[in-house]
Structure formats: C-alpha cells, structure tokens
UniProtKB/TrEMBL annotation, chain A:
Entries under PROSITE patterns matching the protein: 2FE2S_FER_1, 2FE2S_FER_2
Membrane-spanning ranges: none
Entry keywords, A to Z: 2Fe-2S, Iron, Iron-sulfur, Metal-binding, Oxidoreductase
Name of the protein in its database record: (2Fe-2S)-binding protein
A UniProt-annotated Pfam family: Fer2_2
SUPFAM superfamilies: 2Fe-2S ferredoxin-like (SSF54292), CO dehydrogenase ISP C-domain like (SSF47741)
Lineage: Bacteria, Bacillati, Actinomycetota, Actinomycetes, Streptosporangiales
Residue ranges occupied by any 2Fe-2S ferredoxin-type domain in the UniProt entry: 6-82
UniProtKB/TrEMBL annotation, chain B:
Domain spans labelled Aldehyde oxidase/xanthine dehydrogenase a/b hammerhead: 19-132
Entry keyword set: Molybdenum, Oxidoreductase
Compositionally biased region (Acidic residues): 779-795
Native source organism of the sequence: Actinoallomurus oryzae
Name used for this protein in its record: Molybdopterin-dependent oxidoreductase
InterPro entries, A to Z: Ald_Oxase/Xan_DH_a/b, Ald_Oxase/Xan_DH_a/b_sf, Ald_Oxase/xanthine_DH-like, AldOxase/xan_DH_MoCoBD1, AldOxase/xan_DH_MoCoBD2, AldOxase/xan_DH_Mopterin-bd_sf
Signal peptide: none
Region of interest (Disordered), ranges: 774-795
Pfam families: Ald_Xan_dh_C, MoCoBD_1, MoCoBD_2
SMART domains linked: Ald_Xan_dh_C (SM01008)
Top-level lineage group: Bacteria
Length: 166, 795
C-alpha cells in the first residue's frame, strides 16, 4: 500500500535538502536512509536511549520520535556537522582523550546533547547529570564521558567549569 | 626505546566513530536492496495451524513472504556448540511450526521498505493450537508441568555433576562446625548492546556466493553455521563485520532469524537488509542468567573454609542455546574462587521452559558464581562476627600456593590474591561515611578469580565445546614499509584494533601510525573459530600477533644486517629505522628494507622474499585474572532506593597493553553489573508473555546510577601467554553485583540473611525492609504500606 507523501525541505548542517518522503517517515530514518547521513544512530526507536539525538532549530530532539515532515523548514544539526574541516571539535577531542566512547554507537547523540548544553550555558554539573542522564551507554559506565565533559567545560571561556559530583 | 605496550595510546578508530563516519550494519545500503521483517510467534507454546499471507502478498510493495513450511523445507538444523553430557538435543531447527517462546521466528516478509514490510506483517494471519506455558525453571520440574518436548518425558535437557559430590563432599558438611546455606537466584537479563542485531545479505547467483554484512562477534563461526543451515559450502559464504555497536555475548553465534534473512536474499535474488528493533530484542535475542543455586558453605570452628557446594537449576529457555548449560558449568568450575577448599562441587540441571533461550552475556556463569560464593562468605562473616575482609584473607590462596589445582579442575596460574584484597580493604576506613536519619550506609567487598582467554582447544574438546580455541595472527610489512595486521578476532568497542596495533608496532619497532589492523572479514582474516568471546581476543589473538611480530622482526633484522654488511646482533631499530651500532650514517628505513625484500633482491642466504609471518596460538591453559572490589552504598529505608556512592577496585589482568582501554573495560563492566545489582530484570507473565519489552520497563543503568570509580591494576604476567596478557573485559561485571549486595547487607544487616536475589530494586528492598520491621516506627506498618483511607486503594 502506498503511503501519502509530501515534499520536505530541511537545512542539514547548513545545507538545504529537499526530498519527497512518506508522511510517516521518522526524522531519524529520513536523515539516515534518504539523506545518507548515517552518523545519527537508532538504538531503541522509542525515545529512551538518546542515540538518535539531533538538534532541530538548536533544540536537542530524539529524531526517532519526530516525523520528517515536522522538521520541514527547520535547521537540523547532526554529528556530521561537528567536524566539517575534518579536525575534531573540542568535545570530540575530549571524548577521544578521556576514552568517552567504546563501540561508538551512542556517541553521536551524546555529542549533540552536549553541544546544545554548551550553547545553553548549562553548568558542568548539569551536563554530567541531567544532560548525560538522558542517554544510555552500555559500554563506558559513563566515567570517561564525564571526564570528557569536565575537560571540555574547563576549556570554556565563562566560569562554568565548576566542580562536579563524582 | 619508546614502549608502546603499557602506554595510554589514543584509539585508532575513534576519529571515524566520533565524526559519524563509522560503518555499522544499518549504515550499509546496496542498490536494489529490499527490507525484511520477521513474523514472530505471539504465543509462548503451541503449534502453528494457519499462516495466511494472501493479503500481504497482494500488496505491490511486498516481494515475498517466506512461510514456516517453506523455511522448514529450505533450511537444515543449526548445530549447538557447547554440549553437555547426554544433552537431549544437539541441533535445533531454524524454522518450525512448533512454538516454544514469544518472539520465535516463524517466517519472513520482504518488501521495498521496512515500513511496508511492517504493514504487511499486520495482515498476515497466523493461527495456533495453544498449549500451556511454563516460565519458571522450578515449575518446569513439577510432575504436571507442560512438556516442551513430550518425547523426552521431562523438561530437563541435561544434568551432570562437577567436582566433588555425594560421598566425596557430604561427610565434610556433616562434620563441619558451621554450614551457611541459602537459596540464591540471579535474575533473567536481556543483553542490550545499544546497536541491535542486524545484517545485509547479498546472493550472487552468477558466482553462487552469499555475502553477509552482520553485527557479530564471530565472523567465521557465522560463516560456518550459515553454510550448514543454508546447504552451502563454506567457501560460498563470506561474512563481514564492520563496526559493531557492542556485543556483550549476545552476538556470539548465528540466530535462526539471521539465517532466514539470508534465505530471503537467496529467494528474492535481491540484497536484503534485516535490522532487529529494540522491542524485538527483548524476545528474539537470547537472554542470560535465570538460575537458582541451593548453595552451602562449610566452615570449621576457626572460620576456615572446608567445602562449598551448589545444587544449580538453570533455565535454558525454549531450547538449549548454542552454549546450553555452559553458563551453569562455568559457574561450577569457578565457584571456589580465590579460596582454599578441601572439597568443592556442584550438581547441574538445565531445564527448558517456554521462554527465550538463555545464552552468553558478559560475566558468563562467573557473575552468578560470585553472587553465590561471596554472599555465602559474607553471611558466614556476619554469623561468626568476623570482619569480612579478615575472613576472606584467612582462607585465601597465597602467591606461594600458585600454580594451584582446584577441586573443580582449574590450574590457577599466577598472582597475589590477598594483596588485591588488602589494598582494597585498606581504603575502607577512610572512605566510610556515617548513616544519617533514614539513610543507612555500608561498605561491602568481594573477590574472585576469573577464567579468561578461552582457551586450549584440547580443553574445549574435553568439555564438549565444539569450537577451536586457537587464534591466528598475521603480520605483514608491505613493500612501502606499512604494516598490516590481520586477526580472526572482532572489534566491537573493546579497542582491540588499537591494542593489536600496539603489540605489532612494539614488536616491529615502528610507530603506531605505520600499522593498520584488519578484522572481521572472513575473506581476509585468518580463520577464527571462537572469535571475540570469553575475554580471549587480547589473550589468544594478541599472543599470536606478538609471536608473529617477533618472528618478522627477527627476519627484518637479518635482512637489514645483510644489506648493511653487519652482524644481526649489531643492528638497532628505532621508529622503523635500522642502523648499525656505533656506525653513524649507516642506516636503512623499513621501506628501503621492505621494497628490496619483496623484489627478492639482496636477501641473506636461506631467507625468503615475503615479509609476512603467521602464528597459530593455541595456549596451554586459560589465563586467570583476579580482582577485589569494594562498594559504598546508601540505602533509603523509606523508599528502598540503593545508591552506589563510591566504588574502588584492584584488578590483575597480567600485562596491561593500554591502561586507558583497560580501565574503560573494567569501569564499563562494573556499570553493567550495577545494572544487574539494582535494576535490570527480564520478566514474563505466567502465560509466557514478556512484560519488559522497552527501556521504560527494562531499566538500564544511566549516568546517575554509576559513580566515578577508582581502578588500580596489579600486573602479574600470564606465564604461558606470549606478552603475558590475561582477559579483562568481564571482571567488572562478574564482581560488582555481589559487591553491591554485600554493601547493602552491611548497610542494613536486618535484611542481610534475605539478600539472596537481584535486582535489589526499590520494590524488593522496600518489601524486605518492611518485613524486617524497619518501617514500624514510621506509620508504614500495615501489609501494603498504603493508608486505608487512601482513595487509590479503593475502587
């Protein structure tokens, strides 16, 4: 049976893309399979694990809980936009230095949430707490990710890198 | 020389994973690719009487529906790998119309998109003759229990003894000054790598070859079993694992649904992708644990351990899995732990139930053994009024006792078990925090010895494990001086690409940047039967790379010496440059040596041209890691919530190749175990319907559950492994559940005797504390804890 389709235009990492897609297509599937941006991963498809997190108009969103048509006209940021020149961003580098990833499957979602947190000016404690708390990682035990967040926040200009609870 | 082994080297695959350029299986897309979804049983027990796909096939998006009948006709039975003595079945069908668990694959829908395949699934009409379910292993032993295989006349799939039993051990218990006895249970768990299982299969009708990209820990094993099941020759099947988003044991064998997805590609002649969704994972991917131990510890009047025994009843699920009763067997052989016992043994019964089969998960059998032994030891300490660290030290094997033959057939190799515990114990006083009001605090410890680096093939033969235990490493210096390392082990996040590169670079005296590691593809990797399971990649696979690298280095030195007209003993190699000691200006780069060598020019007499060495490493024994852990917990007497506030441990995994990666493995393992201790539980209702099928019901540990922890390493090299490595991927998970359990017992001694099963969820904890009278002064003294006037309690 053919589902209803609609034209969707999304600016992804600063580049405008237009595709005709089924109205039921999830934003995660649209990014991955229609635009070929497979850096965004799908872990649970019910909005809990956070692996699929992208920024929609700057706001972190579970792309498995959104439809592509809902993002029509929006600006979406994905992990592919974090190191456009090939050099790791400071948060990516901190994750590498602090062993904040193992299998790497949940990592893109965490990077996107941390980018939003950094822009929103949240404290390091909140980034390690509430923000990281919205992601499930089976490999790392979160310790390396917290260390990476501390390293990144310590390098931020404002006085935001205060001590975090262990 | 700049040592690479033991250095905190950055992981070589991180940049691609951090920038979204990894290639996980769902990232692969082939021209003309179709999408498969599985038709799965919706009941726990019965027979399929109707499978009508007429309406689904009328949909133009649907290319094929494989029915149970067709699947049965086109597939052969799947051999089981680890067979117990007289196990009642040794092969299982890939497809059958007899249903024994919810989620069992019955057929396949293939359509243009995953969504249209799921639409079709909704209109496939499946009818059943339903039979009674039996979910619980003890219930499955009842005289009137429904039989899964009536021809057996029982639900017991295998039963046998390990170590000392009957007359060998009972007199010790009868004569002991004290016997601590408990019924202990480790819950059923779902494995939950964040990347679900999945594959892309492509059948080339011209060459009659099947290529399968799959998320797996064991490429060659998948290849061999796909060939058997699909009636192909092994050479017709190529299996490729690219980036794997975690395995943790559940991706260590071929599943029926994976074979059916490959059948769909062969049937349609088009590439087919199948990706498991998370809801499916909870029923379709093998579970783990679900075992009851009736266990006893005998002590003399001085608190010396005399004997340990457990009567193990394990729930195998709907059929023996690839490993069958293997987890219960590993529990048995590792039950004695780091202590001296006059006698030790178990009896094992594995039973089938109408649930998802249980198989491998990180900590395989050893987590359960630690839960049993270390709870009994802690209970003995409490009953005797002895400090738990002191009681353990009194009974531990000393370094001088090693190598030591246990009553359960293990020859422990090397280490200092008491030192690890003393170091952990020395921290207790300074880390201890007082209870406050209704928040109780306590610290618990636990220790273990771990079976890692499976293992000698001859041992695997002895225990009926039908996979070779060796690994092959191939190290090659290319004509341009670049280095290629190939191994049969698979990367799944444990950092094995980086650590193998470190080993090879160190042996060849070249920088890390010169080395590329190629894994996972059966067309290019050396054969590996067992793959990346059982904490063996570094021990067995790494050992092979060490030896191959060392041999290649010797040859390169000989060749360079010949070219430089020097004695090989006078050649120094630094960062890939060969020079003659004390002769400045006389040197050759690795590329200069390699280019000529591959031409076959200027070789010393007897030297061959190719710069490739292959080593087959079949170790003489497994290697035994060990650890001591401690946890500090806070227990809220009113809510039942347990918080792990502090965690520290001392671990010995022999040579640590990369301390950053090693710490990550241990910390991640502990976190997995804290999930087991506090939250995770796969549950069924009495009709055999799984009721924890999302992350809202099955609670995974998140950042707030896991404190930062302190990991220290002792490094006693494995005497029999080239490089001295022991395994370290599972130790964290093995010991943390019981460490947390012992800490909870210390915090709330009133319930210590009844802390026999996990998870110690708020509801279980609240109930135990309520029944122990800990709510008597708070008004929460009725049976339910609810106020009788509470309107929610009246309908």
């Amino acid at each position: 049976m053919k589902a209803e389709t609609r034209e969707v235009t999304i600016s992804v990492n600063g580049r405008e893309m237009t595709r005709r897609t089924e109205v039921r297509t999830l934003l995660s599937d649209f990014l991955r399979h229609e635009l070929g941006l497979t850096g965004t991963h799908v872990g649970c498809e019910h909005g809990v694990c956070g692996a699929c997190t992208v920024l929609v108009d700057g706001v972190p969103m579970r792309s498995c809980l959104a439809l592509a048509v809902q993002a029509d006209g929006a600006a979406v940021e994905t992990v592919e936009g974090l190191a456009p020149e090939g050099e790791l961003s400071q948060m990516q580098q901190a994750m590498r230095d602090e062993h904040g990833l193992q299998c790497g499957f949940c990592t893109p979602g965490i990077l996107m949430s941390m980018l939003a947190a950094e822009r929103a000016g949240v404290s390091c404690a909140e980034a390690c707490g509430d923000v990281l708390g919205g992601h499930v990682c089976r490999c790392t035990g979160y310790q390396g990710i917290r260390a990476a967040v501390r390293r990144r926040w310590a390098a931020l200009p404002a006085a935001r890198g205060e001590e975090t609870p262990a | 020389m700049n040592r690479l082994v033991g250095a905190r080297v950055a992981r070589i695959n991180d940049p691609r994973l951090l920038t979204g350029r990894g290639t996980y299986v769902d990232d692969i897309s082939l021209p003309g690719m179709l999408h498969a979804v599985m038709v799965r049983a919706s009941i726990a027990h019965g027979r399929v009487t109707r499978f009508d796909a007429t309406e689904a096939l009328a949909d133009e998006d649907v290319h094929a529906v494989i029915t149970p009948e067709q699947a049965m006709a086109r597939t052969h039975e799947l051999p089981l790998v680890w067979l117990a003595p007289e196990q009642r079945h040794t092969r299982v069908p890939v497809a059958t119309d007899e249903v024994r668990y919810v989620g069992q694959p019955l057929g396949v829908v293939v359509a243009d998109t995953r969504a249209s395949a799921e639409d079709a699934l909704d209109v496939i009409d499946v009818g059943y003759d339903e039979l009674d379910a039996v979910v619980d292993a003890e219930a499955a032993l009842a005289d009137d229990a429904p039989l899964l295989y009536p021809e057996w006349g029982t639900n017991v799939v295998a039963s046998y003894d390990i170590g000392d039993t009957g007359e060998e051990i009972e007199p010790v218990f009868a004569g002991a000054a004290r016997v601590v006895e408990r019924r202990l249970h480790v819950q059923r768990l779902a494995v939950n790598p964040i990347e679900p299982r999945g594959l892309v299969a492509q059948w080339d009708a011209g060459t009659e070859a099947l290529t399968v990209w799959i998320s797996t820990q064991v490429s060659h094993h998948i290849r061999d079993h796909l060939a058997i099941v699909l009636g192909l020759r092994a050479d017709q099947v190529r299996v490729i694992a690219r980036d794997v988003g975690g395995g943790f044991g559940c991706k260590e064998h071929l599943y029926a649904d994976e074979a059916l997805a490959c059948l769909a590609a062969m049937t349609t002649g088009r590439p087919v992708k199948w990706i498991e969704d998370r809801g499916e994972h909870f029923g379709a991917t093998f579970h783990a644990r679900d075992v009851v131990h009736r266990a006893r510890l005998a002590l003399d009047e001085d608190g010396r351990f005399l004997a340990i025994h457990s009567d193990i009843l394990g729930n195998c699920g709907a059929h023996a899995s690839n490993v069958g009763t293997g987890p219960f067997r590993i529990s048995s052989i590792m039950l004695p732990g780091p202590y001296r016992f006059e006698r030790a043994g178990t009896t094992i019964r594995g039973v089938v139930t109408t649930t998802t089969p249980t198989g491998a998960m990180r900590g395989f059998g050893m987590q359960e053994a630690s839960w049993v032994r270390e709870r009994l030891v802690d209970e003995a300490a409490r009953e005797l009024g002895v400090d738990p660290v002191e009681l353990r030290l009194r009974n531990m094997l000393e370094p001088g006792d090693l190598p030591y033959d246990t009553r359960t057939y293990q020859r422990y190799d090397s280490g200092d078990y008491p030192e690890a515990l003393r170091r952990v114990g020395a921290e207790i006083e300074k880390r201890s925090r007082p209870s406050e009001g209704r928040i109780r605090r306590g610290i618990g410890v636990a220790t273990h010895v771990e079976f890692t680096g499976l293992g000698p093939s001859k041992t695997q033969q002895l225990v009926g494990f039908h996979l070779g235990g060796f690994e092959t490493g191939v190290v090659r210096v290319e004509p341009d001086g670049s280095v290629l390392v190939s191994s049969g082990v698979v990367g799944m996040g444990q950092g094995i690409e980086t650590t193998l590169a470190q080993l090879a670079a160190e042996q060849l005296h070249v920088p890390m940047s010169a080395v590329r590691v190629r894994l996972g593809d059966t067309a290019t990797a050396p054969y590996s039967a067992s793959g990346s399971i059982a904490s063996r990649s570094m021990v067995v696979g790494g050992g092979a790379v060490v030896r191959a690298g060392a041999r290649l280095h010797e040859r390169l030195v000989r060749i360079a010496a010949h070219r430089l007209e020097a004695d090989p003993g006078d050649i120094e190699v630094e960062e890939g440059v060969f020079s003659v000691k004390g002769v400045p200006g006389s040197s050759l780069t690795l590329a200069e040596v390699a280019e000529r060598a591959w031409l076959g020019w200027n070789l010393p007499p007897g030297e061959r041209a190719d710069l490739e060495e292959k080593d087959v490493h079949d170790p003489e024994n497994v290697s035994y890691s060990y650890a001591a852990h401690a946890a500090a917990v806070a227990v809220d007497l009113d809510t039942g919530q347990v918080r792990v506030e502090d965690y520290w441990l001392v671990h010995d995994a022999g040579t640590v190749v990369n301390p950053m990666i090693a710490d990550g493995q241990v910390v991640g393992g502990v976190a997995h175990g804290i999930g087991i201790a506090l939250h995770e539980e796969m549950r069924y209702d009495p009709a055999g319907q799984p009721i924890t099928t999302s992350y809202l019901d099955y609670v995974m540990p998140t950042a707030e559950d896991i404190p930062d922890m302190d990991v220290s390493h002792m490094c006693t090299p494995a005497p029999h492994i080239p490089g001295g490595m022991k395994g370290l991927g599972e130790g964290g998970t093995i010991l943390s559940p019981v460490t947390v359990g012992n800490a909870v017992a210390a915090a709330v001694p009133e319930i210590a005797e009844r802390l026999v099963e996990t998870p110690l969820s708020p509801s279980r904890m609240w109930t135990l504390m309520h029944e122990a009278g800990l709510h008597d002064e708070t008004g929460l003294d009725d049976e339910t804890g609810l106020d009788d006037d509470d309107p929610t309690s009246k309908e």
